[in-house]
């Protein structure tokens, strides 16, 4: 890349928020040739079909479940061609399988490594995603299992954030089900609206999206293109395994204590879960 993806002010702003709070940031990659719609249409033709998701996405209720997602009948290439008017959302996943996008991802995430690693350790399982959205598209309330930097390249959108520790919105049981293969879309109640923290991004602006925090997204009046770069940490893998361990305890009729939120960690439960999985595998083989 010709220049740094962030100013030093932006790195300082991320440092003030990471890893718990969402944060509005600036970036310098909005005009990057790989983030223009023609390059993304070409990328969609190179990606494996399992790396692409798309669906109708306007006028959706905020609490829609993952299996109620509607389709338009267009294929993904037609959807990108007609994105201005087809009321759809396209997700290109693990774009780092393409060498040019992998380079971009490593350049950008490398620039924030000095903020991330002292707090949550090595950046693990890096992945890149592209969201291409028609005007007015809504992504319903959900959470993500990874840390995320979202870079707006075209159009604008508002993400509304809720705290990861809000048990009324996202229960221990919901996390347990998710980390055992369940859905990530959350039910929605209108009275939660006032607890949200909206952050709007336009081209050249980014958002740090905290791990596990519920959020929903609304695209404004133009086509939106966002790059999302994500990573995991040892902390996040321990948290996920602690959720899996808690669900075992619950099946035994116990009422396990909630997993710890950062900076406390969940090593003990996580190691117990991993030991049980290893033992089960050995018994399965034996
Ligand atoms: Fe998300």
Give structural notes.
- This protein has seven helices and eleven strands.
- The strands form two sheets. Strands 1-9-6-11-4-3-2 form a seven-stranded antiparallel β-sheet. It has a four-stranded antiparallel β-sheet with strand order 5-10-7-8, with no helix packed on it.
- Helices cover 33% and strands 23% of the residues.
- The mean pLDDT is 94.
- The radius of gyration is 19 Å and the shape is globular.
- The chain folds into two domains: 8-232, Cupin (Jelly Rolls, Sandwich); 237-285, no CATH class.
- The longest helix is centred in the middle third of the chain and has 22 residues, at 99-120.
- It has 286 residues and is of the alpha+beta class.
- The protein has helices at residues 8-17, 37-46, 76-81, 99-120, 172-179, 234-251, 267-285; strands at 23-26, 52-56, 88-92, 124-133, 138-142, 147-154, 157-161, 197-201, 205-209, 215-219, 224-232.
- The structure holds fe (ii) ion.
- Residues 142, 144, 215 line the site of fe (ii) ion (FE2).
Query: In percent, how much strand structure appears in the residues?
Result: 15-25%
The tally of strands reads 11
Largest pleated sheet:
7 strands, antiparallel
Largest sheet, spatial ordering of strands: 1-9-6-11-4-3-2
Task: State the low-pLDDT regions, or none.
Answer: none
Q: What is the tally of helical segments?
A: 7
Helix/strand order? HEHEHEHEEEEHEEEEHH
Q: Which molecules are bound besides the chains?
A: fe (ii) ion
CATH architecture of the largest domain: Sandwich
Shape, per Cα inertia axes: globular
Structural category is alpha+beta
